[in-house]
Specification:
single chain; about 200 residues; 3-stranded mixed β-sheet; 6 helices
Length: about 200
Amino acid sequence: MSEVLSKYLPEHAVSSCFELIKSNNVHLKIVNERQTRHGDYRRAIGGKHEITVNANLNKYRFLITLVHEIAHLVAYEKFGRLIKPHGNEWKHTFQRLMVPFIRPEIFPHSVLPLVANHFRNPTASSDTDARLAFALKQFDERKPDIHFVHEVPSGSLFRIKNGRIFQKKGLRVKRYECLEVKTGRLYLFNANAEVEIIPGG
């Protein structure tokens, strides 16, 4: 298991993650990308703890996702199944489990302070922390034709994964107003949403 983990995790996080998996009797599955989630936890028939994590995540996001899901398991075991999935019990458990990993040997200097700040009050998804999500995305393997919304020139057209086409308008606080060409409706996009620029659009 530790050899498998070393493909997906920062080098100095492997042994601690292996211990977390072993001590909590986790059955870990590394699965193909799912658009809607980075990972999940469920208690299978017979009480087995199953955690899945997407194989396409970069090693820093993989680490955060794995610990996020183990925190669900630990919080449910300690506080019972009736707690809120991302309530205070889970938050405090996630914080406690992540603290040993918030070190310069594990996270690069461009990400470490953002991770430390996020874990003062972790949210249900690190994607909602725009600065941290953007810093983590710098370590993704990006296809050459994929850009972030903030990189799209104002007035240009772009396409999202489901094929819908938008025109970038202005910045509203931290998100970008974009007009859907087909419907004429305005939508707000996070700066680090991944899109495909339409040439000459």
